[in-house]
Amino acid sequence: MITVRAPATSANLGSGFDVFGVALDRPADVIRVERADRTTIEITGVGSQYIPTDPEKNTVGAVVDALNAPARIEIDKGVRPASGLGSSAASAAGAAVALNELYDRGLSRKELVPIAAEGEAVVSGAAHADNVAPSILGGFTIATEQGVESVDADIPLVACLPEIAVSTRDAREVVPETASMEQLVKTVGNAATLAVGMCQSNPELVGQGMADPLVTPARAKLITGYDAVSTAAQQAGAIGVTVSGSGPSMLAVCHDDRRRDVATAMLDAFADVGVEARAYQTRVSQGATLF
């Protein structure tokens, strides 16, 4: 049996819509695989009751097919489905790494990214790599049509997950179809600033670069209390705040000594609008790990 810990991720990071992503050191899924004549899936953990075990409807099924690697698969969910923290991507990424090892396919981590992305397509309808890439490779990733690049980074973060639902489909439907030249210039400048900040492990630059005049304002409207939570986080020491993935999680960048204050402020602000939430004091971290 092969066991892999696959981390949660945060995609977009504000200015890097459908391109940027980071691996988080918590939460994470644990995936166990064992050779079998046919594929079966057993799921436990947070939100497991909402996830299909039929291989044709689960993200790992497409990974099994791509690698021609039937297996008995156990998934212990630590990443809540529909959280904006790459739940389906963690399962697909972990399965890709585990099955590649189990069957000795010899594929590199980068070669596994498009395979795991096909798994993502089962639930999202499109093979986006912005979540599976960091879950497999770790660090900060840039996923484009030309491929995926990654860099190690050490940035303190707080991911705050409210107990509300935002569907990926709804989150994509509110994304504006056009942008002004002013919005485009701001977004490109901020994305470049964020990328430099990641390369330098500089929270100040990363936080500044998360600002996004286009996608984030549209998606923020789907999250009850977003503006109040963002303001509270910044008053507590957050340098930048944005929507994590398609939401409803919110992601804040801060310095190490302010993570607890920022997490508490975000939880209190959600509570003030009647929303229960959970905060993860986390950071940019490594990708899927065999153990």
Automatic annotation (TrEMBL):
GO annotation (BP), single: threonine biosynthetic process
Domain of life according to the entry: Archaea
Compartments reported by the entry: Cytoplasm
List of residues binding ATP: 80-90
An annotated GO cellular component: cytoplasm
Primary subcellular site in the record, as a coarse category: cytoplasm
Annotated ranges, domain GHMP kinase N-terminal: 60-139
Pfam families registered for this protein in UniProt: GHMP_kinases_C, GHMP_kinases_N
Principal EC category: transferase
InterPro entries: GHMP_kinase_C_dom (IPR013750), GHMP_kinase_C_sf (IPR036554), GHMP_kinase_N_dom (IPR006204), Homoserine_kinase (IPR000870), Ribosomal_Su5_D2-typ_SF (IPR020568), Ribsml_uS5_D2-typ_fold_subgr (IPR014721)
EC identifiers of the protein: 2.7.1.39
GHMP kinase C-terminal domain boundaries: 197-270
Alphabetical UniProt keywords: Amino-acid biosynthesis, ATP-binding, Cytoplasm, Kinase, Nucleotide-binding, Threonine biosynthesis, Transferase
Pathway involvement of the protein, from the record: Amino-acid biosynthesis; L-threonine biosynthesis; L-threonine from L-aspartate: step 4/5
Record's catalysed reaction(s): L-homoserine + ATP = O-phospho-L-homoserine + ADP + H(+)
Gene Ontology molecular function: any one: homoserine kinase activity
Annotated PANTHER family: HOMOSERINE KINASE, HOMOSERINE/4-DIPHOSPHOCYTIDYL-2-C-METHYL-D-ERYTHRITOL KINASE
Function: Catalyzes the ATP-dependent phosphorylation of L-homoserine to L-homoserine phosphate.
Family listed: Belongs to the GHMP kinase family. Homoserine kinase subfamily.
Protein name in UniProt: Homoserine kinase
